[in-house]
Amino acid sequence: MKILRFVGVCIVGLLFLMVAPDFANAQFGKLKDKIKKEAEKKVPKVKEAEKPNAGAEGETETDSFEVKVDSQANGGNGFQLYTKFDFVPGQRVLFYDDLSQEEVGEFPSRWSLKTGVFEIAKVGPDGWIMATTRGQISPKINVNQLPEKYTVEFEFLNRTSVYRGAYYIDFNWLDSSGNLMGYLHLFCNTSAYFYMKLDQGGVQSISDKKLPPSFATGVHQIRMMVTKSSVKCYVDNERLVNAPKSEYFKPTSFAISIHGDDVDFEKEKIFFRNFRFAEGGKTMREQLDESGHIVTHGIYFDMNSDKIRGESYKTLADIAQMMTDDATLKLMIEGHTDSDGNDASNLELSERRAKSVRQHLIDTYKVSEDRLESKGLGETKPIDANTTPEGKANNRRVELVKM
């Protein structure tokens, strides 16, 4: 009996030794899984967006990346998102580069290079200025000094939503010696910083703000509006900077700086286009009182469409307020185009756009129908030469004529 009991104990012991390692490993595995899950809860996952095939080194065709720019894309979701958007573009365009005369693979001819490598590239059907290294580039604006009131606009193509520690784009204000007077710093898809010269020393940090979640892959509108007393900066529908202008802030030119590690540029080039610099002018009421009509470039439409874009909010709201303040005011809304394209198509498009503006004022602001009329004039009434990008940009406009 004792022998049998001893044999039984031995068998049980052997079985335990055989099972124990698996049991221990299983328990340890569960513990590792639990620790891993807890850690994942604390560290947010960043899912890298699908990237296009940018092609071999040196190629400038990137057709696989789809670029969409409309009133619903990239932070624009109709007019409700623009109700605090107070940007109004300058009235007279002083510099506008649509890259229409540039050749793919060449340096952009209307810009000056300080450092880096920049060239014209195609993304889909559209031309862009592409940076393949860190560097700085400046538009050749033909002015001795900047106007007291002006606006700057350009489009930036963001091709990655992933955080990268040295990936950013700056808009710089420079003095006549090339020294920084201030800059807007868009950093790593996460934050915007604004610096300005406040005294005889260097520039100082004024403000910082998180970039909206919409600042991910896609095309984004970068805008600056400078007046006698303030500097405002915008990304898409959001105002990021509203700073009083320092007496030491006296720039004479602009530059765009591109930053990134070499590994960033190997994966993602940086693109921008449609740089527009325009002088600010008189208010709508001042224009109307002096000449009986208003010229505005602040009503934006989708490409070859009569669909009004959300960033037109401020201009349309100002028109409506002017008509509310003056109950006797009646306006003819005129649509105008440049000379590109077919004459008949331009006329038809300008008519549809003028009607669209009229209907928006009626539907949104309840302006009486009998106070508004509309007509399209196409390219028949230019206010500038159609031989330069600036002239064409000035001719693409909406006018409001007192009836």
Describe the secondary structure blueprint for this structure.
Layout (H helix, E strand, L loop, with lengths): L1 H41 L49 E6 L13 E5 L2 E6 L2 E6 L3 E5 L10 E9 L9 E7 L5 E8 L3 E7 L5 E8 L7 E9 L3 E6 L2 E7 L8 E7 L2 H6 L2 E10 L4 H8 L1 E4 L16 H13 L5 E6 L6 H23 L6 E5 L12 H7 L1 E6 L1
Parallel strand pairs: 17-18
Antiparallel strand pairs: 1-15, 2-5, 3-4, 4-15, 5-14, 6-11, 6-15, 7-8, 7-14, 8-9, 9-10, 11-12, 12-13, 16-19, 17-19
Element-by-element helix/strand order: HEEEEEEEEEEEEEEHEHEHEHEHE
Shape: globular
Structural class: alpha+beta
Q: Based on the structure, what is the oligomeric state of the protein chains?
A: single chain
Q: What count of domains describes the coordinates?
A: 2
The count of DSSP E runs of length 2 or more, i.e. the number of strands, is 19
Short description:
This protein has 403 residues and is α+β, with helices and mostly antiparallel strands.
What tags apply to this protein structure?
single chain; 403 residues; alpha+beta; Jelly Rolls; 60s Ribosomal Protein L30, Chain: A; 2 domains; eight-stranded antiparallel β-sheet; 6 helices; globular; disordered N terminus
